[in-house]
Protein: Leucine-rich repeat-containing N-terminal plant-type domain-containing protein
Amino acid sequence: QGRPHLVYDNICTFPPTIDLSHNKFTGPIWPSFGNLKNLHVLNLEENNLSGSIPDSISGMTSLEVLDLSCNNLR
Structure:
């Protein structure tokens, strides 16, 4: 359904950061985010994400900041 397959090979910021805030994404958080083991910052605030936070997020062992604010998560 148009969901990207996430692969983390090389992100050129330090610390490694993905900012997908304010993009009007809908539906659940993609479980494939759990593949991003070296990511330090993931910002998904101000979208319309819903459902539960996937268990795969616990696989993001380097994650220091996770912003899920202003979504419809339970």
